[in-house]
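Escalation from tier 1.

The customer reports that the assembly of two entities below gives different structure tokens on two consecutive runs. Tier 1 could not reproduce it. I'm attaching the input and our single run for tier 2 to review.
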Amino acid sequence: MSGPADPSGPDSRHLAARDLVLIRGRRPVLDGIDLALRPGEITVILGPNGAGKSTLIAALSGVLAPTRGEVWLDGQRLSELERRARARRIALLPQHTDIAWPITARSLVELGRIPHQGAFGLSAADRTAVDRALLAAGVTELAERPVADLSGGERARVLIARALAGAADWLLADEPLTGLDPGHALDALALFRTEAARGAGVVLTLHDLDLAARTADRIVVLAQGRLQADGPPAAALTPALLHRVYGVTAEVTVTDGRVRIDIRGRAEAGA
Amino acid sequence: MTRLEAKLLAALGLLAVASLWAGPVPTPLSVLAHPDDPRFIILTQLRLPRVLLAILVGGAMGLSGATLQGYSRNALADPGVLGVSSMASAGAVIALYFGLTAHATPWALPVSAALGAALGGGLLMALAGWSESATTFILAGVLLNTLGGAATALALSLAPGPWAQAEIVNWLMGSLTDRSLDEVRLAAPFIVAGCGLLLATGRSLDALTLGDAAAAGLGVSLPRLRMLLIVAVALSAGASVAVSGVIGFVGLITPHLLRPHVGARPSALLVPSLIGGALLLLAADTAVRLVPTPAELKLGVAMAVVGAPFFLWVLVRGGVQGRWSRQA
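Tier 1 run:
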């Protein structure tokens, strides 16, 4: 592999995209993304439908190879990392996970240990990690039930437990709150906060602006495959940006560091 | 080894001994120590090859079915449904048509069947491998079944004479009758190699339970898994078809019967399906051999007669697990 070294220096601990371009068909889904994510933070990726959020998550996790540019993990090219080693470092929780077989919740969470597993099945360490993940996601009591019998919210929490089971340094989750009621959504966000507090880098895509604003350390706004804003919630989520990106009028208030977003309505054309 | 596997293996052992013994002339295993005994010939030349082939072919079919179901996340997949057997059969029929088996080498039949199966597997993956949709997968199978059937029919209609036609038809019906240890020697290396590769896919298939993206996120290389499956199914299904003709439903039914006992995890299903498929086909072959019918019932026909209603029952009962049940 040739090309320039990681511009941020080889020792920096981060997950970074450099001039990331991903073309699908003829359309650039990602069009020159430069982004350096830090561990110990929750970064929320926002953007309208079709902005390229899922594609960015997939590219950052290494499962989707970019057309141009490179993703760097701690100063190393992600594409040069062995697949299983990469999976041990970065856990990916894709959107709309459709579970093919009626396995138990525990079996599902055990799948998260696949990158760690030796040739002879689960080790004691694997089982401990699975128990810990079940406990953290609050689904220990569901462990022996078939996932097909769980409610949407319970299933979403079991899937989060699966992503936690790998104890990766990075947790990338695409729309992890889909199907969760407000209470469970807050529980899930608290879980992501705990992960960040233990030093993991957490990257989420969300649709709910208000939840994003109250959760994120950092907001990245994407539209048409390009970065529109990048910064702490109060700096990134301005009324002008929301108007430009989403076509809505909104009031943004900051009280005691807490950002509230009140969407007033659809912006008038040309307004 | 799990308790289920141990039980299945014990049952298979018992059935094998019983099948070797049973028949118009009972032949206890002790005959093996007396080569001058006329029953020695019956045991080693007639019954042993048949039992061995039933175990090899049944095991290969059961394991191929379990693997393909895991890969396609679809409980309706097996080499027969997905058209791989049909393509293998077309490959074999073309070899028979050109008389390659008589004039060239005995390896021509398994090799051309394996090539047919590999072509079928490759086409299947090319048509449906990139798709998340179970429907695409099944439609690709329908297409391959049609293609294989057409190639077979063409060879049949062009066959140089009634004798060649009869040979092809007879072979098509699927049977283990009158096979010798030569056929075992021919098929065994292919089947064992194919099954070995298939058994190595377990963890990747487990990861696929969560879909392509999550599996890739867990470090599974989908292109590599696909390649491995094509080669492995071509070897095991191709060689099976080459020695036995098309015997359907074993690959479909076996994982279905066993899934409730192993907790539905694809990897946990592989070894039980291997042993279970062998058990099922050996039981069926022993039955067609012993049931008094004017002419011996063809094994492929018998499996279809039993398998088709079972398949229907599975569909009607709604017991089909996997994406088929949720995505049309």
